[in-house]
Amino acid sequence: MASHLRHGPDGEMRLRIIEHNLQLLAEQEEEEEQPQPKDGAEEQNNNDKELSSSNTNNISKAKPLKAVLLFSIDTQSTQSDVQTMITKWRQQMPNAHLAYNIISQIIFVPNDPTMVDASKWIVAIEKLLPEIQSTNARVMLINDSFVLTRNVPELWPDDCGDVCGLVWTAPEDDESRHIQSYIRTLSSCAVERYRNFYYEKKSDIRNVHELIVEFELNLSWVGGERGGSVSAIYDYAGAHPDDEAAQKVLVPQGYPAIKLKKFFVTDDPWLSEPETTRSKLPPSFSATIYKGMNHDLNYLSDEDAERHFAEDGKNEDRIYSSLPLVIKSWLREELIKMGGEESTIAILEAYLTALNRGIVNASVEK
After folding, report:
1. Prediction pTM value
2. Which residue has the higher pLDDT, 226 or 335?
């Protein structure tokens, strides 16, 4: 599990997300230990839990989960402060908590702004590779950019391929087709290939975009001498999985992940007004907030920021004003329909509370 932590409310929120996701991932082990129902008991309940994935019926008993947490530290924080924050976080977890019990190591690594998560995962891979190879263990590479809505046992069976992810991003005939790298599992053989590919390509990567191209869009490293296979739980949903159109198809099917950058919308009447009659920019638009809350745009002038929003940003769910952010209404309804998703909604609401507070602070600082 890779994470970049900042001391304070933002870091505490990240740790809460990590705990939530680990708790759901660990539930698979608890479910496996439960006795099987007798005489058809709970048959209806099992039917209700049936997933859309074709891999679901092939789930095999997984090896015990071990979680390695890999933290880099924000430049404005000290390692001592962050360590204290993490210690407090772990002390507040009940000893019987599933997330608490699967954490085997916490490792601090230098922040690499170019290789980002890959530079963290490679540290754990180096430490654990002999054990991974000797036990033929399957490894999940994961970060803290999303919230799980359920556990994902479909990612663990060996027959799901050398690399298994959530969903294909494009149709089969599209050369850009891939699975996103924020959560995917690798066979023991694929782990070694990933390691070798990392060291082969690291010196050529100059920015995050090139990292994404080589380590996410490119799947050639999976092959090896005997060839490798890549699979996804869900097929292409008609659009990139981060797009709302695809999300509206996937989430009702049990899609288990909500990206933290994609679940909210600004509570602004301007967004629902007809494009033909509304103003070019919302009355609440702030170039300062737009650049401050969207770090990939912080180099723009105010005029260029306005142009970017008018042409692209308005369709990208970007933060642009001090108006409050809210969970998209359709998503909230779907989470409620799933049942038992109170913890997921609570996490999302807490994240938005922190984000709204950050927006206010960003507008005051300038």
Report:
1. 0.86
2. 335
